[in-house]
Amino acid sequence: METILVIDDNSHFRKIAGGCLEEHGLTPVLAENGREALKIIEHRPPDAVLTDLDMPEMDGWRLVELMRRDYPSVPVVLMTDQGNEQAASAALKAGAASYVPKKDLRTNLCDAMSVVVAALEAKHHKVQVRSFLQQTEAHFILGYERNGPTALVSHLQGNLSRIELCDEAAIFQVSTALTEALNNAIDHGNLELDSELRERSKQAYAALREERMQHLPYRDQKVYVTERFTPPQATYVIRDEGPGFDHSALPNPKEPKNLLKASGRGVMLIRTFMDEVTFNDIGNEITMVKRCENSC
Prior knowledge:
The chain is built from 10 helices and 10 strands. It has helices at residues 11-23, 34-43, 60-70, 85-94, 105-132, 148-162, 168-190, 195-200, 202-213, 265-273; strands spanning 3-7, 27-31, 48-52, 76-80, 98-101, 136-142, 223-230, 233-240, 276-279, 285-291. The protein is elongated, with a radius of gyration of 27 Å.
């Protein structure tokens, strides 16, 4: 049963609101002001908040701001007296989910809460549907588009976040590994650039990179990316059209003498952040697996 936190310094309106929520099969929790409400929220966030706009100590406007910042998934519905329409409008723009005039509160509140209840049900359905998920797969082709790797990693990160397969720390690790793998596929795979050149001269490295992007055979080569979710794991396959490389010959970047070298650093990060990393025989395809059962 969903819990709704009701905040109003007027006990009469708290009683009316609480009764209406109970009629909808919801569990009201009552607070007299914003500060008391925050203590309740910190202890156990409710499913939704119903708050008066004008209150002592902390008003509903400030509460909306704090909820938006710290608990963005919890909807906030405002209750206001006549004459506060401008303040209510500002609070709605700041992130409140709805607005209920206190005049004829019972009728207006029941209408507003039916919308909130529908949103809460949709949230629960999302969790249920996620439990149905067996596998999803998507394929992407990347050239030398400006900011292409950044845009793709952002999209893949969003997908991982949407299905809530991993926690934020694991998602960050996956994003770092994807960025390194894509950069390796483009620079060292398709463009056949040498990390040692970058260590000697970043300017020469950048110039050669730009030149090769304009000429055959490098110009038309692509990077192929496969994203596959089979809960509780995420798999990413990145393949370039270059000649490949002997990944076993990479220097060990964990050795002190190699820590500051560019060569092998990306693969080290990938191996550190992903649970399983393999290459195909010629070394132009990497498969990375992240198992998230312990981080969800």
